[in-house]
Design a protein that fits this description.
CATH superfamily of chain B: CBS-domain
Structural class of chain A: alpha/beta
Number of strands of chain A: 12
Number of helices of chain A: 12
Strand order of the largest sheet of chain A: 1-2-3
CATH architecture of the largest domain in chain A: Roll
CATH topology of chain B: CBS-domain
Number of domains of chain B: 1
Largest sheet of chain A: 3 strands, mixed
Largest interface: A-B, 27 and 29 residues
Oligomer: heterodimer
Shape of chain B: globular
CATH topology of the largest domain in chain A: CBS-domain
CATH class of chain B: Alpha Beta
Radius of gyration of chain B: 18 Å
Chain lengths: ~300, ~160
Amino acid sequence: MAQFNRKSTLRNLTVNDAMRRQIIQLDQAKTIDLGINVLIKYKVNALLTVNSQGNPVGVVSKTDVMGAYYAGLPVESPLEYIMVSPPLFCRSGDSLETALEQMRTSGVYRLYVAGNESGDLVGALAYPDIVGMLYQYCHQCEYSHLKTTRQGNKDDSVGRFNVREVMTPSVKSIGTGETLNTVMEALSAFRFGAMLVTDENDQPRGVISKTDLALNYKHGVDPEVSASTVMNEPVSTCDADSLLEEAIKKMTMADIHRLFVYAGETSNIVGVLSLSDAARVRSGSCYACVSSRIKVDDHD
Amino acid sequence: MKTTAVDIMTTDFSTLLPQTPVIDAIRIFQESFNQQGRRLFGMIVSNEDQHLVGMLSMYDILLYLRPKHIHVWGSMEDLEIAGVIDAAGNRIKSILVGDIMTPDVVTVGPNANLMMVLDTMIKKHVRRLPVVEEQRIIGIVYISDLFRQLLEGISD
Protein backbone atom coordinates (compact mmCIF):
# COMPACT_ATOMS: atom_id res chain seq x y z
CA MET A 1 0.00 0.00 0.00
CA ALA A 2 1.22 3.46 -0.83
CA GLN A 3 2.81 5.67 1.76
CA PHE A 4 1.25 9.10 1.94
CA ASN A 5 3.91 10.92 3.85
CA ARG A 6 4.90 13.18 1.02
CA LYS A 7 3.38 16.55 0.30
CA SER A 8 3.19 15.74 -3.38
CA THR A 9 -0.06 14.87 -5.06
CA LEU A 10 -1.62 11.63 -6.09
CA ARG A 11 -0.43 12.39 -9.58
CA ASN A 12 2.88 10.80 -8.69
CA LEU A 13 1.31 7.46 -7.87
CA THR A 14 1.59 4.47 -10.17
CA VAL A 15 -0.68 1.55 -10.88
CA ASN A 16 1.54 -0.51 -8.60
CA ASP A 17 0.49 1.65 -5.61
CA ALA A 18 -3.25 1.13 -6.09
CA MET A 19 -3.65 -2.32 -7.61
CA ARG A 20 -4.81 -5.45 -5.85
CA ARG A 21 -2.37 -8.33 -6.02
CA GLN A 22 -5.00 -10.98 -5.60
CA ILE A 23 -6.33 -11.84 -9.06
CA ILE A 24 -9.70 -13.53 -9.10
CA GLN A 25 -9.71 -15.89 -12.06
CA LEU A 26 -11.43 -19.00 -13.38
CA ASP A 27 -11.03 -21.33 -16.34
CA GLN A 28 -13.33 -20.24 -19.16
CA ALA A 29 -14.79 -23.76 -19.27
CA LYS A 30 -16.11 -23.44 -15.69
CA THR A 31 -19.81 -22.74 -15.23
CA ILE A 32 -21.50 -19.38 -14.73
CA ASP A 33 -22.80 -20.87 -11.46
CA LEU A 34 -19.22 -21.25 -10.22
CA GLY A 35 -18.40 -17.77 -11.54
CA ILE A 36 -21.17 -16.28 -9.40
CA ASN A 37 -19.79 -18.14 -6.35
CA VAL A 38 -16.43 -16.47 -6.95
CA LEU A 39 -17.93 -12.98 -7.50
CA ILE A 40 -19.91 -13.23 -4.25
CA LYS A 41 -17.20 -14.89 -2.18
CA TYR A 42 -14.50 -12.37 -3.06
CA LYS A 43 -16.86 -9.38 -3.39
CA VAL A 44 -15.62 -8.37 -6.83
CA ASN A 45 -17.57 -6.99 -9.75
CA ALA A 46 -15.72 -9.03 -12.37
CA LEU A 47 -13.44 -12.03 -12.76
CA LEU A 48 -10.72 -12.89 -15.25
CA THR A 49 -11.19 -15.97 -17.42
CA VAL A 50 -8.20 -18.05 -18.51
CA ASN A 51 -7.78 -20.84 -21.06
CA SER A 52 -6.51 -24.34 -20.33
CA GLN A 53 -2.92 -23.07 -20.55
CA GLY A 54 -3.70 -20.46 -17.89
CA ASN A 55 -3.49 -17.51 -20.27
CA PRO A 56 -5.98 -14.64 -19.76
CA VAL A 57 -8.71 -14.70 -22.40
CA GLY A 58 -11.61 -12.61 -21.12
CA VAL A 59 -13.53 -10.86 -18.36
CA VAL A 60 -16.92 -11.74 -16.87
CA SER A 61 -18.62 -8.91 -14.94
CA LYS A 62 -21.85 -8.84 -12.93
CA THR A 63 -23.35 -7.01 -15.91
CA ASP A 64 -22.50 -9.99 -18.16
CA VAL A 65 -24.02 -12.37 -15.58
CA MET A 66 -27.17 -10.25 -15.50
CA GLY A 67 -27.30 -10.41 -19.31
CA ALA A 68 -27.16 -14.22 -19.16
CA TYR A 69 -29.97 -14.28 -16.58
CA TYR A 70 -32.08 -12.00 -18.76
CA ALA A 71 -31.37 -14.13 -21.86
CA GLY A 72 -32.46 -17.29 -20.03
CA LEU A 73 -29.07 -18.98 -20.43
CA PRO A 74 -28.76 -22.06 -18.17
CA VAL A 75 -26.59 -21.21 -15.17
CA GLU A 76 -24.55 -24.33 -15.92
CA SER A 77 -23.31 -22.77 -19.20
CA PRO A 78 -19.56 -22.15 -19.47
CA LEU A 79 -18.18 -18.71 -18.72
CA GLU A 80 -16.77 -18.47 -22.24
CA TYR A 81 -20.35 -17.98 -23.53
CA ILE A 82 -20.67 -14.66 -21.73
CA MET A 83 -17.12 -13.35 -21.26
CA VAL A 84 -15.92 -10.20 -22.95
CA SER A 85 -12.63 -10.65 -24.82
CA PRO A 86 -9.87 -9.75 -24.63
CA PRO A 87 -9.08 -8.49 -21.12
CA LEU A 88 -7.41 -5.08 -21.15
CA PHE A 89 -4.02 -4.57 -19.62
CA CYS A 90 -1.93 -1.74 -18.27
CA ARG A 91 1.62 -1.84 -16.87
CA SER A 92 2.43 -1.74 -13.17
CA GLY A 93 4.72 1.24 -13.74
CA ASP A 94 2.09 3.32 -15.58
CA SER A 95 0.90 6.42 -13.78
CA LEU A 96 -2.58 6.19 -12.28
CA GLU A 97 -3.62 9.05 -14.55
CA THR A 98 -2.62 7.04 -17.63
CA ALA A 99 -4.43 3.93 -16.44
CA LEU A 100 -7.58 5.93 -15.65
CA GLU A 101 -7.45 7.54 -19.08
CA GLN A 102 -7.21 4.07 -20.61
CA MET A 103 -10.27 2.98 -18.59
CA ARG A 104 -12.19 6.06 -19.73
CA THR A 105 -11.43 5.64 -23.42
CA SER A 106 -12.12 1.89 -23.35
CA GLY A 107 -15.28 2.27 -21.28
CA VAL A 108 -14.18 -0.29 -18.66
CA TYR A 109 -13.97 -0.13 -14.89
CA ARG A 110 -11.14 -2.59 -14.45
CA LEU A 111 -7.72 -3.22 -15.97
CA TYR A 112 -5.44 -6.15 -15.44
CA VAL A 113 -1.85 -5.29 -14.64
CA ALA A 114 1.21 -6.70 -16.36
CA GLY A 115 4.59 -6.47 -14.68
CA ASN A 116 6.73 -3.67 -16.07
CA GLU A 117 9.55 -5.94 -17.12
CA SER A 118 8.23 -9.49 -17.11
CA GLY A 119 4.90 -8.73 -18.74
CA ASP A 120 3.38 -11.39 -16.46
CA LEU A 121 -0.01 -10.84 -14.85
CA VAL A 122 0.68 -9.27 -11.46
CA GLY A 123 -2.57 -7.64 -10.34
CA ALA A 124 -5.86 -5.96 -11.08
CA LEU A 125 -6.77 -2.29 -10.91
CA ALA A 126 -10.44 -1.49 -10.29
CA TYR A 127 -12.30 1.77 -9.56
CA PRO A 128 -13.31 0.85 -6.01
CA ASP A 129 -9.66 0.26 -5.09
CA ILE A 130 -8.66 3.68 -6.38
CA VAL A 131 -11.54 5.28 -4.49
CA GLY A 132 -10.48 3.37 -1.40
CA MET A 133 -6.96 4.69 -1.77
CA LEU A 134 -8.19 8.28 -2.11
CA TYR A 135 -10.04 7.92 1.16
CA GLN A 136 -7.14 6.30 2.91
CA TYR A 137 -5.15 9.34 1.95
CA CYS A 138 -7.95 11.55 3.21
CA HIS A 139 -8.22 9.65 6.48
CA GLN A 140 -4.54 10.12 7.24
CA CYS A 141 -4.57 13.81 6.37
CA GLU A 142 -3.98 16.26 9.21
CA TYR A 143 -7.21 18.03 8.27
CA SER A 144 -9.22 14.80 8.58
CA HIS A 145 -12.63 15.42 10.15
CA LEU A 146 -12.13 12.41 12.42
CA LYS A 147 -8.76 13.68 13.63
CA THR A 148 -9.96 17.21 14.33
CA THR A 149 -13.04 16.03 16.22
CA ARG A 150 -11.02 13.54 18.26
CA GLN A 151 -8.60 16.28 19.29
CA GLY A 152 -11.55 18.32 20.49
CA ASN A 153 -10.84 21.04 17.99
CA LYS A 154 -14.18 22.82 17.85
CA ASP A 155 -12.92 25.45 15.43
CA ASP A 156 -13.03 23.28 12.35
CA SER A 157 -12.39 25.90 9.70
CA VAL A 158 -11.80 23.53 6.81
CA GLY A 159 -14.75 23.55 4.41
CA ARG A 160 -16.12 20.08 4.00
CA PHE A 161 -18.17 18.46 1.31
CA ASN A 162 -21.62 17.35 2.23
CA VAL A 163 -23.50 14.61 0.50
CA ARG A 164 -25.77 16.97 -1.44
CA GLU A 165 -22.84 18.49 -3.34
CA VAL A 166 -21.56 15.16 -4.54
CA MET A 167 -24.62 12.97 -5.09
CA THR A 168 -26.30 12.28 -8.41
CA PRO A 169 -29.45 14.38 -7.99
CA SER A 170 -31.83 12.13 -9.88
CA VAL A 171 -33.06 8.70 -8.96
CA LYS A 172 -34.73 6.16 -11.21
CA SER A 173 -37.06 3.79 -9.43
CA ILE A 174 -39.26 0.87 -10.27
CA GLY A 175 -42.56 -0.30 -8.79
CA THR A 176 -42.76 -3.20 -6.33
CA GLY A 177 -44.99 -5.10 -8.76
CA GLU A 178 -42.58 -4.96 -11.71
CA THR A 179 -40.74 -8.15 -12.67
CA LEU A 180 -37.03 -8.87 -12.33
CA ASN A 181 -36.82 -8.85 -16.13
CA THR A 182 -38.09 -5.25 -16.09
CA VAL A 183 -35.56 -4.38 -13.39
CA MET A 184 -32.79 -5.82 -15.57
CA GLU A 185 -33.98 -3.87 -18.60
CA ALA A 186 -33.90 -0.65 -16.58
CA LEU A 187 -30.45 -1.35 -15.08
CA SER A 188 -29.12 -2.06 -18.54
CA ALA A 189 -30.74 1.02 -20.15
CA PHE A 190 -29.54 3.46 -17.48
CA ARG A 191 -26.24 1.66 -16.83
CA PHE A 192 -26.96 1.62 -13.10
CA GLY A 193 -25.67 -0.83 -10.52
CA ALA A 194 -28.93 -0.90 -8.56
CA MET A 195 -32.58 0.24 -8.71
CA LEU A 196 -34.69 1.76 -5.99
CA VAL A 197 -38.01 -0.06 -5.56
CA THR A 198 -40.99 2.09 -4.61
CA ASP A 199 -44.59 1.28 -3.74
CA GLU A 200 -47.81 2.73 -5.21
CA ASN A 201 -47.47 5.81 -2.96
CA ASP A 202 -43.95 6.46 -4.23
CA GLN A 203 -42.50 5.41 -0.90
CA PRO A 204 -39.07 3.72 -1.04
CA ARG A 205 -39.38 0.06 -0.08
CA GLY A 206 -36.17 -1.67 -1.15
CA VAL A 207 -33.23 -1.93 -3.52
CA ILE A 208 -32.25 -4.50 -6.14
CA SER A 209 -28.61 -4.52 -7.22
CA LYS A 210 -26.76 -6.49 -9.88
CA THR A 211 -25.33 -8.58 -7.04
CA ASP A 212 -28.86 -9.51 -5.92
CA LEU A 213 -29.74 -10.45 -9.50
CA ALA A 214 -26.65 -12.65 -9.83
CA LEU A 215 -27.66 -14.44 -6.60
CA ASN A 216 -31.23 -14.92 -7.79
CA TYR A 217 -29.93 -16.34 -11.07
CA LYS A 218 -27.77 -18.82 -9.14
CA HIS A 219 -30.66 -19.70 -6.83
CA GLY A 220 -32.89 -20.50 -9.79
CA VAL A 221 -35.40 -17.70 -9.16
CA ASP A 222 -37.82 -17.13 -12.05
CA PRO A 223 -37.03 -13.66 -13.54
CA GLU A 224 -40.77 -13.05 -13.86
CA VAL A 225 -41.24 -12.77 -10.07
CA SER A 226 -42.01 -9.30 -8.75
CA ALA A 227 -39.35 -6.92 -7.47
CA SER A 228 -40.91 -6.94 -4.00
CA THR A 229 -40.16 -10.65 -3.49
CA VAL A 230 -36.38 -10.30 -3.81
CA MET A 231 -35.58 -6.67 -2.96
CA ASN A 232 -33.27 -5.76 -0.09
CA GLU A 233 -34.94 -3.99 2.82
CA PRO A 234 -34.63 -1.50 4.26
CA VAL A 235 -33.15 1.00 1.82
CA SER A 236 -29.73 2.21 3.02
CA THR A 237 -29.96 5.99 3.21
CA CYS A 238 -28.15 9.09 4.38
CA ASP A 239 -29.10 12.72 4.96
CA ALA A 240 -28.28 15.12 2.12
CA ASP A 241 -26.77 17.50 4.67
CA SER A 242 -24.46 14.95 6.29
CA LEU A 243 -20.73 15.02 5.75
CA LEU A 244 -19.42 13.13 2.76
CA GLU A 245 -16.80 11.54 4.98
CA GLU A 246 -19.48 10.03 7.21
CA ALA A 247 -21.38 8.67 4.20
CA ILE A 248 -18.23 7.06 2.82
CA LYS A 249 -17.59 5.49 6.19
CA LYS A 250 -21.10 4.07 6.26
CA MET A 251 -20.66 2.54 2.81
CA THR A 252 -17.28 0.97 3.50
CA MET A 253 -18.45 -0.50 6.80
CA ALA A 254 -21.65 -1.95 5.39
CA ASP A 255 -19.96 -3.13 2.18
CA ILE A 256 -22.44 -1.30 -0.01
CA HIS A 257 -21.69 0.73 -3.12
CA ARG A 258 -24.38 3.35 -2.78
CA LEU A 259 -26.64 5.18 -0.38
CA PHE A 260 -29.95 6.75 -1.32
CA VAL A 261 -30.02 10.34 -0.18
CA TYR A 262 -32.99 11.93 1.59
CA ALA A 263 -33.86 15.51 2.44
CA GLY A 264 -36.03 16.17 5.49
CA GLU A 265 -38.21 13.07 5.67
CA THR A 266 -36.31 9.79 5.21
CA SER A 267 -38.85 8.78 2.59
CA ASN A 268 -38.11 11.86 0.51
CA ILE A 269 -35.36 10.44 -1.69
CA VAL A 270 -33.63 13.23 -3.64
CA GLY A 271 -30.52 11.55 -4.96
CA VAL A 272 -28.08 8.69 -4.85
CA LEU A 273 -24.48 8.69 -3.70
CA SER A 274 -22.10 6.01 -4.94
CA LEU A 275 -18.50 5.46 -3.89
CA SER A 276 -17.40 6.63 -7.30
CA ASP A 277 -19.56 9.80 -7.15
CA ALA A 278 -17.35 10.69 -4.23
CA ALA A 279 -14.21 10.34 -6.28
CA ARG A 280 -15.68 12.11 -9.29
CA VAL A 281 -15.63 15.45 -7.52
CA ARG A 282 -11.85 15.19 -7.30
CA SER A 283 -11.85 15.18 -3.56
CA GLY A 284 -11.89 13.04 -0.48
CA SER A 285 -13.95 14.97 1.99
CA CYS A 286 -12.88 18.59 2.13
CA TYR A 287 -11.93 21.46 -0.14
CA ALA A 288 -8.39 21.63 1.15
CA CYS A 289 -6.88 19.37 -1.45
CA VAL A 290 -9.27 19.57 -4.36
CA SER A 291 -6.54 20.25 -6.87
CA SER A 292 -4.46 17.30 -5.79
CA ARG A 293 -7.04 14.74 -6.65
CA ILE A 294 -7.08 12.60 -9.70
CA LYS A 295 -10.22 12.43 -11.75
CA VAL A 296 -12.28 9.25 -11.65
CA ASP A 297 -15.33 8.88 -13.85
CA ASP A 298 -18.67 7.86 -12.47
CA HIS A 299 -19.62 4.24 -12.83
CA ASP A 300 -21.32 1.36 -11.13
CA MET B 1 -0.35 -50.89 11.49
CA LYS B 2 -2.74 -48.42 10.00
CA THR B 3 -1.29 -47.29 6.68
CA THR B 4 -4.06 -45.81 4.54
CA ALA B 5 -6.61 -42.99 4.66
CA VAL B 6 -9.50 -45.37 5.16
CA ASP B 7 -7.82 -46.74 8.32
CA ILE B 8 -7.78 -43.44 10.18
CA MET B 9 -10.66 -41.49 8.67
CA THR B 10 -13.69 -40.39 10.65
CA THR B 11 -17.02 -41.53 9.31
CA ASP B 12 -19.08 -39.42 11.71
CA PHE B 13 -19.38 -36.02 10.08
CA SER B 14 -22.15 -33.61 9.23
CA THR B 15 -22.72 -32.27 5.75
CA LEU B 16 -24.46 -29.25 4.31
CA LEU B 17 -26.43 -28.85 1.11
CA PRO B 18 -25.49 -25.99 -1.26
CA GLN B 19 -29.03 -24.61 -0.90
CA THR B 20 -28.82 -24.46 2.91
CA PRO B 21 -28.91 -20.84 4.17
CA VAL B 22 -25.53 -19.73 5.56
CA ILE B 23 -27.36 -18.65 8.73
CA ASP B 24 -28.18 -22.33 9.41
CA ALA B 25 -24.52 -23.28 8.90
CA ILE B 26 -23.48 -20.57 11.37
CA ARG B 27 -25.90 -22.07 13.90
CA ILE B 28 -24.31 -25.53 13.49
CA PHE B 29 -20.85 -24.04 14.08
CA GLN B 30 -22.14 -22.26 17.18
CA GLU B 31 -23.74 -25.42 18.57
CA SER B 32 -20.48 -27.31 18.10
CA PHE B 33 -18.73 -24.88 20.45
CA ASN B 34 -20.85 -26.19 23.30
CA GLN B 35 -20.14 -29.82 22.60
CA GLN B 36 -17.32 -31.99 23.85
CA GLY B 37 -14.88 -33.52 21.48
CA ARG B 38 -13.52 -32.32 18.22
CA ARG B 39 -13.80 -28.66 17.34
CA LEU B 40 -15.61 -28.05 14.08
CA PHE B 41 -13.79 -25.72 11.68
CA GLY B 42 -15.26 -26.73 8.36
CA MET B 43 -18.14 -28.70 6.97
CA ILE B 44 -18.46 -30.74 3.81
CA VAL B 45 -20.99 -29.58 1.24
CA SER B 46 -22.56 -32.36 -0.79
CA ASN B 47 -25.53 -32.70 -3.09
CA GLU B 48 -28.44 -35.10 -2.66
CA ASP B 49 -26.38 -37.94 -4.18
CA GLN B 50 -23.69 -37.39 -1.52
CA HIS B 51 -21.32 -36.14 -4.19
CA LEU B 52 -18.82 -33.65 -2.86
CA VAL B 53 -19.45 -30.15 -4.22
CA GLY B 54 -17.45 -28.02 -1.81
CA MET B 55 -16.40 -27.16 1.71
CA LEU B 56 -17.66 -24.38 3.96
CA SER B 57 -15.19 -23.31 6.62
CA MET B 58 -15.38 -20.69 9.34
CA TYR B 59 -12.85 -18.80 7.26
CA ASP B 60 -15.30 -18.58 4.32
CA ILE B 61 -17.93 -17.06 6.62
CA LEU B 62 -15.46 -14.64 8.20
CA LEU B 63 -14.25 -13.62 4.73
CA TYR B 64 -17.82 -12.66 3.89
CA LEU B 65 -18.20 -10.80 7.19
CA ARG B 66 -15.14 -8.61 6.60
CA PRO B 67 -15.93 -5.33 4.82
CA LYS B 68 -14.01 -5.36 1.56
CA HIS B 69 -12.59 -1.85 1.88
CA ILE B 70 -11.84 -2.05 5.60
CA HIS B 71 -8.21 -1.07 4.93
CA VAL B 72 -9.41 2.46 4.20
CA TRP B 73 -10.19 2.82 7.91
CA GLY B 74 -7.32 0.65 9.07
CA SER B 75 -5.94 3.20 11.50
CA MET B 76 -9.26 3.90 13.23
CA GLU B 77 -9.29 2.98 16.87
CA ASP B 78 -12.97 3.57 17.41
CA LEU B 79 -14.17 1.18 14.76
CA GLU B 80 -17.76 0.27 15.54
CA ILE B 81 -17.72 -3.50 15.42
CA ALA B 82 -21.40 -3.81 16.28
CA GLY B 83 -22.32 -1.74 13.23
CA VAL B 84 -20.22 -3.91 10.94
CA ILE B 85 -21.80 -7.09 12.31
CA ASP B 86 -25.32 -5.67 11.95
CA ALA B 87 -24.69 -4.75 8.32
CA ALA B 88 -23.16 -8.15 7.55
CA GLY B 89 -26.00 -9.92 9.35
CA ASN B 90 -28.51 -8.15 7.19
CA ARG B 91 -26.57 -8.97 4.03
CA ILE B 92 -26.01 -12.62 4.84
CA LYS B 93 -29.73 -13.38 5.16
CA SER B 94 -30.08 -14.07 1.44
CA ILE B 95 -26.80 -15.98 1.09
CA LEU B 96 -26.77 -19.75 0.71
CA VAL B 97 -23.94 -22.17 1.47
CA GLY B 98 -23.32 -22.68 -2.26
CA ASP B 99 -22.75 -18.94 -2.72
CA ILE B 100 -19.67 -18.66 -0.52
CA MET B 101 -18.37 -22.22 -0.10
CA THR B 102 -14.98 -23.16 -1.50
CA PRO B 103 -15.83 -25.33 -4.48
CA ASP B 104 -12.39 -26.73 -5.29
CA VAL B 105 -11.73 -29.21 -2.53
CA VAL B 106 -8.62 -31.37 -2.32
CA THR B 107 -9.54 -35.00 -1.64
CA VAL B 108 -7.85 -38.36 -1.26
CA GLY B 109 -8.89 -41.88 -2.18
CA PRO B 110 -9.52 -44.47 0.56
CA ASN B 111 -6.33 -46.35 -0.24
CA ALA B 112 -4.05 -43.32 -0.20
CA ASN B 113 -0.92 -44.04 1.82
CA LEU B 114 -0.64 -41.99 5.02
CA MET B 115 2.62 -40.45 3.79
CA MET B 116 0.79 -39.22 0.70
CA VAL B 117 -1.99 -37.86 2.93
CA LEU B 118 0.67 -36.03 4.94
CA ASP B 119 2.31 -34.68 1.78
CA THR B 120 -1.05 -33.47 0.43
CA MET B 121 -1.96 -31.70 3.69
CA ILE B 122 1.39 -29.89 3.78
CA LYS B 123 1.47 -28.93 0.10
CA LYS B 124 -2.15 -27.76 -0.02
CA HIS B 125 -2.18 -26.14 3.44
CA VAL B 126 -5.25 -28.10 4.58
CA ARG B 127 -6.02 -29.71 7.90
CA ARG B 128 -8.77 -32.05 6.79
CA LEU B 129 -9.17 -34.15 3.69
CA PRO B 130 -12.42 -35.70 2.52
CA VAL B 131 -11.98 -39.32 1.50
CA VAL B 132 -13.82 -39.90 -1.74
CA GLU B 133 -14.65 -43.20 -3.42
CA GLU B 134 -16.45 -43.20 -6.76
CA GLN B 135 -17.41 -39.54 -6.24
CA ARG B 136 -19.08 -40.29 -2.90
CA ILE B 137 -17.68 -39.04 0.39
CA ILE B 138 -16.99 -41.89 2.77
CA GLY B 139 -15.05 -40.09 5.49
CA ILE B 140 -12.69 -37.30 6.55
CA VAL B 141 -9.06 -37.51 7.62
CA TYR B 142 -8.15 -34.84 10.20
CA ILE B 143 -4.60 -33.66 10.74
CA SER B 144 -4.92 -34.49 14.45
CA ASP B 145 -5.69 -38.15 13.67
CA LEU B 146 -2.81 -38.26 11.23
CA PHE B 147 -0.50 -36.79 13.90
CA ARG B 148 -1.69 -39.30 16.49
CA GLN B 149 -1.21 -42.24 14.17
CA LEU B 150 2.17 -41.29 12.71
CA LEU B 151 3.80 -40.15 15.94
CA GLU B 152 2.50 -42.89 18.17
CA GLY B 153 5.38 -44.19 20.20
CA ILE B 154 7.87 -41.59 19.05
CA SER B 155 8.02 -39.78 22.42
CA ASP B 156 8.28 -42.94 24.56
